[in-house]
Design goal:
- The chain is built from 21 helices and 18 strands.
- With 649 residues, it is α/β, with parallel strands linked by helices.
- A 9-stranded mixed β-sheet has the order 1-2-3-5-4-8-9-10-11, with helices on both faces. A 7-stranded mixed β-sheet has the order 12-13-14-16-15-17-18, with helices on both faces. Strands 6-7 form a two-stranded antiparallel sheet.
- Helix 7 links the parallel strand 8 and strand 9.
- Helix 6 crosses helix 7 and helix 15 packs across helix 18.
- The protein is elongated and about 90 Å long.
Length: 649
């Protein structure tokens, strides 16, 4: 047997490659069912209002709270386009200090007294407000007599966060890639990057309220895909919204989970699946205000989930009794994922009815997008090209980190350590099902005629096997002295560490190479259409974010695996008190450090090429994304960082 044979060997005794999926999906399905039961029990108006309030509070808490809205908007009008029947103002306003939003304000010709307006929130098109689809939607609405404010989301349009003004290039791709890249760094702070998307939208409403053409009591909101997500957040968070039309987003989360799709960071709301939150809660938050769900029949958002959610939620409008014509409405177009012209017409009719009080009298003929360059609010085409002080999520994360570090230094060390350990124990042990190891052992033979190799499989939890390879040389008389080897890809990456394995074994210690959940021999089968196993939006990303929804994480799960590996090694010693050490290479060393402070059976930890601190990861403007979802324990930096663990162990 050689190293290559070992790395490519098959397990053969148990199917472990679907276990992480089953573990995550079964926990999620139980939470979804509990959420359905809780909503089914809402039968009075009092219960409905109580649930709406509770879900709104839980949602905002899952985002890390909302930023303050006391920053002056300081709006700038950088130009106006004259079009047939309307004008387009090119506007820049400030949502937070140095966080500027670029927007186009469509105003129907002849607008006199304060009138109705619609905030149009764009989906994941890199051009955002300048993209053809969103221009066409805005034109449908303005032709119906509605004022329309279409804004660029963070990382799109003129708001690229990683744009280099010297080279006119961006180091991180626009839209979903940028959202995920910056969004991962929000999570250790106890934040979700959605807090900045929703805040920008709320400040956009603030801006509309400053315009003399706008009636603040008649402001609606719409958007497609990522814009549908933002629209849904506004339905939940901003009571000023008088009517809402989310497009190509509303579904139910269980149907989407089984579809095997990933979502980017601002669409991941930590802990809310555990609370039973679902898209029904987004819709019921609007009751009794009018809402229109716009759906694409052939969407990758499962249409069956959309239909089910709408059907189950209609009854909440009925609880309010005589509400005039306000209700939950539904429009479905036979199209793929988009904000189609038929949807745009349906939205225009809906907002005209509920905000203007009359049907639209207009023609839809001849609607065409205009050149994107004409809609630019900046000279260079990018805020970062025009303004050296333009901030985005990365700068906001650094500011939030500084506040957390200041609060930590103000707390006495013993109290801080105790508080941190209570939190960490709950993260690692809370909700895990302890179980017998029920170990499987198989002798594989010898490697290079000097090391015996044994395959070991055991239950870490009731639904998850862990796996490892035990190496011993003739110098090692028994398993009482064991060094656990921990690194990315585990037993599938023996070659680069074989020299260390051989030298450690020759020194008289057994080496046990560990595969933690979702890695090495227990790596899952692929479930996502986009990306490889470890890429952005790949399978590991999908399962990691599903765990965030459950108020869990890969980091916590794998730390538990390391502790259970100590149980396994102890069992191999036949009741002796083994000398267990751990050698880690790379980012997986984080699991070793956390396990060491939780369990004193781990006598020594050596980490090479590891991460110095999670705070450094958050502060880094650029970082290596590989395996980064595995080092994120949401909220960790509110309690401790890795240097604290090293100092306390």
């Amino acid at each position: 047997m050689n190293v290559t044979d070992l790395e490519h060997g098959k397990l053969g005794i148990y199917d472990v490659n679907d276990q992480l999926k089953r573990h995550v999906y079964s926990r999620s399905a139980e939470a979804f069912a509990a959420g359905d039961r809780d909503r089914d029990e809402v039968v009075t108006l009092e219960q409905l209002e109580r649930r709406k309030s509770r879900m709104r509070s839980a949602f905002i808490q899952s985002l890390g709270g909302l930023p303050p809205s006391d920053c002056p908007l300081d709006p700038l009008l950088t130009g106006t386009l004259q079009r047939d029947g309307y004008t387009i103002d090119k506007v820049i306003f400030q949502s937070r200090p140095n966080h500027w939003v670029t927007a186009n304000l469509y105003i129907p010709a002849g607008t006199g007294a304060p009138s109705a307006a619609v905030l149009h929130l764009c989906g994941h098109n890199p051009l955002a407000k300048q993209g053809d689809v969103y221009q066409i939607v805005s034109q449908h609405l303005v032709r119906a007599g509605l004022i329309v404010l279409t804004i660029d989301p963070i990382g799109q349009g003129e708001r690229l966060s990683y744009y280099d003004r010297d080279t006119s290039a961006t180091r991180v791709a626009a839209s979903t890639r940028e959202h995920e890249y910056a969004g991962r760094q929000s999570l250790p702070l106890g934040d979700c990057s959605a807090r900045y998307f929703i805040h920008d939208a709320m400040r956009a409403v603030d801006y509309l309220c400053t315009r003399p053409e706008v009636d603040p009591a008649k402001i609606g909101v719409t958007g497609c895909s990522g814009g549908g997500m933002q629209t849904s957040m506004m339905m939940l968070c901003d009571p000023r919204i008088a009517a809402a039309a989310p497009a190509a987003f509303i579904m139910n989360r269980e149907s989407y989970m089984y579809a095997g799709q990933a979502q980017d960071a601002e669409q991941i709301w930590p802990g809310l699946t555990k609370l039973g939150f679902d898209h029904e809660d987004l819709l019921m938050a609007m009751a009794p205000r009018p809402a229109l769900v716009l759906a694409a029949e052939y969407d990758f958002f499962p249409i069956e989930g959309t239909r089910r959610t709408v059907e189950r939620t209609k009854r909440f409008w009925d609880m309010y009794g005589n509400c005039g014509e306000a209700e939950l409405e539904y429009f479905e177009d036979a199209c793929v994922h988009t904000y189609s012209p038929p949807m745009a017409k349906a939205a225009a009719v809906f907002f005209s009815k509920h905000l203007l009080g009359k049907p639209p009298v207009c023609s839809w003929e001849g609607i065409q997008p205009i050149s994107p360059e004409l809609l630019r609010c900046t000279k260079s085409g990018q805020l970062r090209g025009d303004r050296v002080d333009a901030h985005a999520i990365h700068e906001a994360n650094c500011g939030r980190l500084a506040l957390l570090e200041e609060a930590s230094t103000a707390m006495p060390e013993p109290a801080r350590k105790e508080r941190a350990l209570v939190w960490l124990r709950e993260r690692v042990y809370g909700g895990r099902s302890a179980c017998p190891l029920n170990t499987r052992r198989a002798l594989l033979g010898e490697l290079d005629e000097e090391l015996s190799i044994e395959r070991i499989l055991w239950w870490s939890q009731t639904s998850l096997f862990n796996h490892g390879l035990l190496f011993r040389s003739s110098e090692c008389e028994g398993p009482a002295s064991v060094t656990i080897g921990l690194w990315a890809r585990g037993t599938k990456s023996i070659g680069p560490r074989f020299r260390w394995i051989r030298e450690t074994c020759k020194a008289g210690r057994a080496v046990f190479v560990l595969d933690v959940s979702g890695d090495g021999t227990v790596m899952p089968n692929g479930v996502t259409a986009a990306g490889g196993m470890h890429d952005f939006f790949g399978t590991i990303h999908k399962f990691a974010t599903d765990l965030y929804w459950l108020d869990d994480s890969l980091a916590a799960l794998r730390t538990f695996d390391v502790v259970r590996a100590l149980d396994l090694v102890e069992s191999l010693s036949g009741g002796e008190n083994p000398d267990i050490r751990l050698y880690a290479d790379g980012r997986f060393g984080m699991y070793a450090a956390l396990a060491a402070i939780l369990d004193d059976r781990l006598k020594q930890v050596e980490t090479v090429n590891g991460i110095s601190s999670i705070a450094d990861f958050v502060r880094s403007r650029e970082y290596d994304p590989l395996d980064s979802e595995g080092i994120i324990m949401p909220g960790m930096l509110r309690y401790f960082d890795l240097p604290d663990i090293e100092r306390w162990t």
